[in-house]
Design goal:
Radius of gyration: 18 Å
Number of strands: 13
Low-confidence stretches: 217-272
Order of helices and strands: EEEEHEEEEEEHEEHE
Shape: globular
Helix content: 10-25%
Structural class: mainly beta
Number of helices: 3
Length: 272
């Protein structure tokens, strides 16, 4: 089965669209989308999980739709995660954004939706890490996509995805995953801050997975089939998330909202 990198969002624009026009007339529209979904905290009570997402819109039809929107209006987006590299003050920086395939005004703006689905190959054997307040397993999954330009030239692009699995789900995966193995993850997009080796504060976007299947799992094929079904059913109601392993304190107090760096900086690969 071909690789999958799919993001489904239904939320609100936090500011007017910003359009860039190139010399050949092509346009790119940047959107700032906020989603708010419900999840369980460490007491079992429901709480709101806000997230901010950077969305890049191309293609004449999608651009026309995006340019016709205004701040504080509902928006639905389907797309793929893309990490771009740029330089700031002579240093390489990375920013993760959603490259939109579909942009439209949702018929039903509620409830909000924030879902990420990834199917690819593991770039390394993950390790389980245990801390006083939580347990986490960090995965790196590579997806490949082929492309064809208007002039007929073809190529292949690899995208690396950071995936975090927590709690009992992480423990069940311990020792079950190997480098190069096929893996599927489903969850929601979120970002967090960390400090790199030079002491500089960074931000990284990741998929917080509540479902993970591997090629060694007997449920593998059913998981892949379910993923394709969910990706096609874009207007399904967001299912309730399991208990958030970050909780309302401890490591959770350090997490940040997803995707959009409001300070204008970029995002960097998580230093796992």
């Amino acid at each position: 089965m071909r690789d999958v990198s799919k993001v489904l969002l239904r939320g609100m624009l936090t500011e007017p669209p910003r359009t860039r026009t190139f010399d050949d007339g092509r346009k790119v529209v940047n959107l700032n989308v906020k989603t708010v979904t419900m999840e369980n905290d460490d007491t079992g009570a429901l709480r709101e999980r806000p997230a901010w997402h950077r969305v890049s819109v191309r293609g004449q039809r999608n651009v026309e739709v995006a340019e016709g929107m205004a701040a504080d209006t509902p928006v639905y987006v389907e797309g793929r995660l893309r990490t771009r590299k740029y330089q700031k003050d002579g240093e390489d920086m990375y920013a993760t954004e959603i490259s939109a395939d579909i942009v439209k005004r949702p018929e039903n703006p509620e409830p909000h939706l924030n879902r990420s689905l990834i199917l690819g190959n593991l770039g390394r054997a993950p390790e389980l890490r245990e801390y006083p307040s939580f347990v986490v397993m960090n995965l790196r999954i590579a997806t490949n996509e082929t492309w064809t330009r208007r002039d007929g030239e073809t190529g292949e692009e690899t995208e690396w995805h950071q995936v975090a699995v927590f709690g009992d789900s992480a423990r069940r995966l311990d020792g079950q995953l190997e480098k190069g193995q096929r893996a599927f993850a489903e969850g929601y997009l979120q970002s967090r801050k960390y400090t790199d080796k030079t002491g500089r504060e960074r931000r990284a976007t990741e998929t917080r997975a509540h479902i993970v299947f591997s090629s060694g799992d007997s449920r593998q094929q059913r998981g892949y089939d379910d993923a394709a079904s969910r990706a096609g059913g874009s207007d399904r109601r967001e299912k309730e998330k399991p208990k958030d392993p970050w909780g309302a304190s401890g490591a959770g107090s350090e997490t940040e909202s997803s995707g959009m760096d409001t300070g204008g900086g970029g995002e960097d690969p998580v230093p796992f």
